[in-house]
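Practice problem: predict the structure.
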Amino acid sequence: MTKSTWFSKIYGALIQDKKIFLVSKGENWSLPLIEIPHKTWIKSSQEMNQAMDKQLGTPVLFLHCASFQRNLEKCCIESVFVLESRKTTETLPEGKWFTKKELIEVPFYSSGQKSLIEKLLEEREKKNFPPERSPWAKPGWFSLASQWIKEELEKQGYSLGKVEPFCTGFNSCLLQIPTDQGNIYLKASPIWEGASHEPQVLFALANLFPTKIPQPIAIEKEKRWMLLSDFGSTIGFSPTLAKKNALLSQFAQLQIEAISQKEHLLEFGCWEHSLEQMPSQIEELFFDEQALAGLSKKEISTLQSQIPKLQAKAQKLSTYNIPPTLVHGDLHLGNVAFVEEKCMFFDWASAAISHPFFDLVWLYLDNPTERHKLISTYLKEWEGFESPQRLEEAWDLARPLAFVYHALYYRQLFAHMEEASRKGFDNPVVFFLTAE
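Answer:
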């Protein structure tokens, strides 16, 4: 049987001056559509931007995902993204602008689009955005960010080209700026409670560890913006075992060096997640039905039966001489670059002070045949704190707690996401609690 190939149908809701842009489909009307020959997500990409620009005949921005559906039978993702034009335009090559009042008489090709469009127009008219809406997902943000970029880079002697959208999601936004000194990127980070202050954290880390952390060119503290140089490609998702071992050794060394900087990093915006907090957080999480959506009552009951064991592991782990230190929170191969045989660690949006072993989750999951060698490499760097035997014991205790740690983070993240964005996820809380 031939395996079906996934594809994506992405509709664009372009709103301007209280009007929505529609294209005709025979006698009916529809939001403009692009098709991408693979799965897409709730993030926009350069590929999506370029395809929609071409379809509409004008450059646009993807603000946020307003609707997301998976059709498993057809292997199709169908989504609606709200767009903003990057220049005021009354006429487009094909289609027509409609006010909310004019929509009453408009026959739609897809019956569900009309109610969604009415909702979006009312939201824009009243500026009644949900509290979960990210700043970059609101109209006008791109212009403000572009102006700040221009001022900062010109002040530092750069000659820059046109600011372009690079990748926009619910928890971050990246813009790309070509300059006479190479590409530069603006990253906007989330502001919700519990998220680390990434620009300040990165600034502090880069000053402490300049060979391992990229130095921001400029930061805007209040808005949580930062400008970064292009420091090269990531390590890739199929590196050699030697490269993965180098990554883990260098990261452990970074964590060890950061132990003495705990208070400094907390002051700069890392969030703290201590082992002492974990027993109560485990119980709270395992009785949170919303966070465990997708699990049956029996599966939830099975999880809840593990509470005493996990609490005991957290308490026992705290007796080992492994101090809390810097935790990346999303340490996978896509967040590490290899520059002149040294690892450069980036994307510190989940930075925290906690138990260092909690950062091993992704490398443990992604390398089932090599995980023992990789963990041994990492633990060896910690032999100045405990004996090899006790480090193995500590890892055995930390491993299930590391999955809970990540589940707790994603529970918090989920609480700050709009409903449409949540539908783009397989519940990550459940993933981590059932992964091992």
